[in-house]
Amino acid sequence: MSSSTVTSLPKTDRSWPNPIASRDLDALRAQVPLVHCITNVVVTNFTANVLLAIGASPAMVIAEQEVEAFAAIAGGLLINIGTINQIDAPAMVKAARAAAAAGTPWVLDPVAVGALPYRTEIAAELLTHRPTIIRGNGSEIGALAGGEGGKGADSTQSSSAALEAGIEVARTTGAVVAISGEVDYITDGKEVITVGGGHVMMTRITGTGCSLGATMAAFAAVSDSPLDAAASASAVFAQAAELGLQVASGPGTLAPAFLDNLASITGPRA
Amino acid sequence: MSSSTVTSLPKTDRSWPNPIASRDLDALRAQVPLVHCITNVVVTNFTANVLLAIGASPAMVIAEQEVEAFAAIAGGLLINIGTINQIDAPAMVKAARAAAAAGTPWVLDPVAVGALPYRTEIAAELLTHRPTIIRGNGSEIGALAGGEGGKGADSTQSSSAALEAGIEVARTTGAVVAISGEVDYITDGKEVITVGGGHVMMTRITGTGCSLGATMAAFAAVSDSPLDAAASASAVFAQAAELGLQVASGPGTLAPAFLDNLASITGPRA
Amino acid sequence: MSSSTVTSLPKTDRSWPNPIASRDLDALRAQVPLVHCITNVVVTNFTANVLLAIGASPAMVIAEQEVEAFAAIAGGLLINIGTINQIDAPAMVKAARAAAAAGTPWVLDPVAVGALPYRTEIAAELLTHRPTIIRGNGSEIGALAGGEGGKGADSTQSSSAALEAGIEVARTTGAVVAISGEVDYITDGKEVITVGGGHVMMTRITGTGCSLGATMAAFAAVSDSPLDAAASASAVFAQAAELGLQVASGPGTLAPAFLDNLASITGPRA
Question: I want to staple B233 with a disulfide (CB 3.0 to 4.6 A). Which of A60, B215, B221, C100 is the partner?
Answer without folding.
Answer: B215
